[in-house]
Every structure is written in structure tokens, then in C-alpha cells.
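Ticket opened by: R.M.
Priority: normal
Category: complex prediction / small molecule

The reporter submitted a protein together with pyridoxal-5'-phosphate and asked that the result be attached to this ticket for the collaborator who will pick it up next week. Submitted input follows.
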Amino acid sequence: MSDHLIQTYARYPVEFARGEGWQLWDADGNEYLDFLTGISVSSVGHRHPAVVAAIKEQADRLLHVGNLFFNAPMTALAERLATGSLGGRVFFTNSGAEAVEAALKLARKHRRGGTIVTVHGGFHGRTYGALSATPQESKQAPFAPLVPKFTAVAPTAEAITGAVDGDTAAVVVEVIQGESGVHALSDETLIAARRACDEHGAALIFDEIQTGLGRTGSLWAYEQTPVVPDALTTAKALGGGLPIGALFTGPKLADVLEPGDHGSTFAGGPLVAAAAHAALDVLEDPALHARVNELGERLRERLAELPGVVAVRGRGLMNAFEVETDAPDLVRRLLLEQRLVSNATGPTTVRLLPPLTIGEAQVDDAVARIAALL
Ligand SMILES: *Cc1c(COP(=O)(O)O)cnc(C)c1O
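Result attached by the on-call engineer:
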């Protein structure tokens, strides 16, 4: 559909023109059920009325001032995010990868020259630092040399304990790995990472860009584990559809980054911050989290009953299922024939990331569309 886009994405031949809640419409007016949400971005649903209203109101007031000054939506958002999570400070970014970059710079300044320990299957973004923390040959190899002193180990207690020493700056992990196909790290692994970091003075950083903001049935996924990280990254759903990310620290790392250490022209702008407040009004609600857990259980139960589904895994509304057949082909047919938007994370894995505002009817509808092709 365009010869003028650099071809970094193998796009489907669909052009979306409008969205509302869990529905999308293409340019020809066909209606789709969205169980991907632009990869866990539109968690409040498309064009949530409160988000749209907040954007319109802020657009009439002020769009940009930059980071040499304060703006009220940003300062209030920092307070809201910090008090609702690790209790330290917040650095705003425009994307997930940038939040990871900020976390890596913080870790390296905290322990100068230190090693960053990551785990196999992890995904942290496409910029150089984030890519260096993403141990996948196909993504890294064409862009070598990467940032020095990143080491990837198996996502197990033993491997992480063995990799962390007095030269480690940070351990960076997802509580549940998203891009590798929804694989949770065990509590045992997370506890071992916490212990190893404590013992050696390294920072434990959780990348909650995909797992955070209610997706797994609590505001942050770490709340359902026995471990609290020293810093956390978020992005994706935070802006209700607009681009914003953030790095949060706990009190221990709150003052590591000082004036001049890092920056961003756009980050924390009043428009995205206003949208984020409206999105958080929806995503912080414990009643929503309870619904996410209920609907997630229903989805996993229904999927497990389908012939041709060989495994189902996930937490809350972050789920994946395994098929015997070709998952990328199934996802393509789900989109083009059944008008269900989903995503293949591997040759046999289909990932489902619906809006958190769906109901039983949408869960059952999605399962029926999948069943029709199995
Ligand atoms: C999507 C994602 C990123 C990258 O975010 P971008 O906004 O695409 O840069 C990093 N980490 C995790 C866990 C993600 O899911």
C-alpha cells in the first residue's frame, strides 16, 4: 500500500480508519474485533471517551513547553505514578525503548562500567541499548557491534545467581516475557534475582512495558510476585493510545541521575500527560483488575477446549496459545477471513492482548472466530 515506507514491517494488507472500544473498521467499512490493541497500547479501548475529552481539553490549553520548565499534567502524573508504585522518582520518555535506555543509563551510572544481565527470550526494544538487552540473534546480528558488557543467561534462578557478581550493574527482566510468546518467569527465578542483586549491590529492573497497567490483572505485574524491583519501565498503554513511556525508581536509585545526565525534548509533554491521567483513571481501578482476571480465566478455559490448541498460557488478559499448524498463517486468516486482530509471536504461537474493557461476549466471540479456523 506504500512504496515509500522503509520496509521494516511485513504489514498485512489492511488499512484501519476508525476505532471504538474493541472494534476497528478498515477503509472499506469492514468491522474487526481487536484482540491485539496495537500490541497492548489501547488497553482502555480505542478512542476512550475520557481520553479523547482530556486530549481535546489540553489541546485547547497548551501542547508543548519542553523540560526546562514544569507543566501541571506532567508533575501530577509523576506524583501519581511514583506513589502508586516504587515510591521514588519518574523520568518520562516517548516510547518503551527510551524508558529502557533511561534505565540502562541509570544502572551504568550507579555502577560505573558494570555488566547488564538479561535473560534469553527477553525483549526490551530496538534502540542500541535496548537491543543489546534483547538477546536474539536475528535482531542483533545485523547491527553489531552492540553496546558492550551485556550478558544473557537462561531465565532460571541458578543461571541468574551464577551471572551476578560485584561487577553487575543491573539485572533486567520482564516478569512475563511478551514478545517471546507470553512466558512468565517463576517466583523462584525472581526471588533469586532479587537476592543476587541485594548481595552484590546491583539494580533489579523490571520491564513492565507490556505487563504493566492492569494487563495481567494488577496495576503492575510485580505486585503478584514476592519481589519488588529497584526500578521499572512502562510505556504502551500509559497514554491511552498516545506515545508516552516512563522509568520509575524506588527511593534507593531516585537521585542517581542528576541535571545534565539525560533528557528528552518531547517527553512528559502536557498533551500526553493529560491523556495518561485519563487512561490511568480507567487502568488503576481494582474492579477492572478483578474483571481482567475473570475474563482471562474464561478465555484460557475456552481456548483450551478447542481442537488444535495444544497449550494455553498467560495471566489476566495477556495470553497466548500454541497450535499444531502454522500460527502466522492462522493469524493472517483470522484477520482477513474472521476479522479478528491477533498476533503470532512464533511459528506455532498466537498472542491475544485485547482491550481490558471487553466483556464475556467479546471473549466468546473471539474464541468462536478462532474455532472457525481450527
Ligand atoms: C514493546 C516493548 C518494548 C519496546 O517499546 P517501544 O515503545 O516499541 O519502544 C520494550 N519492552 C517490552 C517488554 C515491550 O513489550
